[in-house]
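Practice problem: DUF2293 domain-containing protein
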Amino acid sequence: MAPSATPPPGGGLLAFQPVRRRHCAACSRGPLSLLVLEEGAPRCLDCADLGHLVFLPRGDTALTRRSREASALSAVVVRFNRRQGRYERQGVLVEEEALALAEERCLADAEARRRRRARDARRRAAEDLRFTEAFAREIRRLFPGCPAGRAEEIAAHASVRGSGRVGRSAAGRALSPDAVSAAVRASIRHLETPYDQLLMNGVPRPEARRRIAGSVEAVLREWGLREAA
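Answer key — structure tokens:
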């Protein structure tokens, strides 16, 4: 369908990206990449008094909105999609000065967002550090015989944000003894027993856990009783 078809509804000026070769009815310039319809006849942007505007493609909502707000004259650019049978928005025509001003404002916002993300990251890092330290203290309280440094390693592994590990569960964040013990058991299972090798050899997980259960319990008893002994 050519741009002489019925324009899409909506207020404001419209410019078209033609779907076939068109020439300006006033100056014969063409083929045109953008045109305006006046009484059904195509006009180039210069003949339509829009030649001083610049094209801003769609995609950045904030930049488009600010450009149109700052531009005394603007037009929406559309193109007819033959497959869908409708006009689709491609971008806007705005004054170059308005676009430059909008870009400056968006860059300022981007910098503000960057600083906010950096502050949030520092805050989360501090929160994570405090939580990991508290988790390690609870490990040492429940298992006073835990080797030096091991409690910190277990806590750091179990409490990684977004990991889905036991330390990030609701029980883990509440420092539930069951959750803390589960993190300790998992560490012992992987580092003090042949559990990983059993899995690599094709032993089903429930069976592998059954085989190493006694070894895990032995280490737990050692870590829990060493100080008292």
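Discussion: Residues 1-5 have pLDDT under 50 and may be disordered. Students who identified this feature from the tokens alone can consider the problem solved.
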